[in-house]
Design a protein that fits this description.
Number of strands: 11
Largest sheet: 8 strands, parallel, barrel
Number of domains: 1
CATH class: Alpha Beta
Low-confidence stretches: 274-289
Helix content: 40-55%
Structural class: alpha/beta
Shape: globular
Strand order of the largest sheet: 1-2-3-4-5-6-7-10
Mean pLDDT: 92
Order of helices and strands: EHEHHEHHEHEHEHHEEEHEHE
CATH superfamily: Divalent-metal-dependent TIM barrel enzymes
Radius of gyration: 18 Å
Distance between the termini: 15 Å
Number of helices: 11
Length: 289
Amino acid sequence: MTRQVGVCSWSLRPESPSDLVELVRATGASCVQLALGPLCEGRWEAGETSRRLADAGIAIRSGMMATRGEDYSTLETIRRTGGVRPDGHWPANLAAAAAHARVAAALGVGLVTFHAGFLPHEPRDPLRQVMLDRVREVAAAFSREGVGVGLETGQETAATLLEVLDELGAANVGVNFDPANMILYGMGDPTAALQQLSARVVQIHIKDARAARRAGAWGEETRFGEGEVDWREFFRVVRERNVAGDWMIEREGGDDRVSDIREALSGVALFAADGVASFATDDGAGERR
């Protein structure tokens, strides 16, 4: 199995397609998961974005969709505002999904990931069916364009997410597995969760974190290797379960993200399984091992 190791474009906070190219080059990565919002909203021209990245030898491996009105101030605010949960934003979010699907298809991108929002754990909770219906509509919008969907982990337990995937029954929906999110949201051990979800994973986010010190609070994102993800055990499961999908480094904190991502690329190389492709950094630290 061949996979690519790259970087999430939004981690670099680029201001333009050319800025993104320079920042990705500085990390040493050669592929990206691209935030599609700027293209869908007309702030970036899709053709120019694709052309500049291609000319620089940077592949677009997947896309990301952010939903409207998300407020990450506290766990409670994101519980209320995240994903497809808010009624007031649902029409706009469904329209945005269709727009993201069209842009992804035009770019030749076969996977777009997003947060569905906090999925209720109790199957009989009326809100669970509402959210399932909405996720199903979003998945259908992407399916019409031949694009797959990855639901990002963290806002529910692995067991709940598995139940939801089974209930959805949508062939184009899988899991974007983010181990740090399991810790940040207090939703279980990331390695154990990966074991449960391994057959449904379509992409992995490489991100680290420490758990919150008190209930109801956020955990703390950290640089790769400085948090509580047991990366040696995590990658052992990836190898043993033959977990599919690219590995995209995501960094949402810190003031020197280029440096943090470069170090993450080098760190991941120590655990990389056979078959990892496109993994060289400028100093050679990311060669296959």
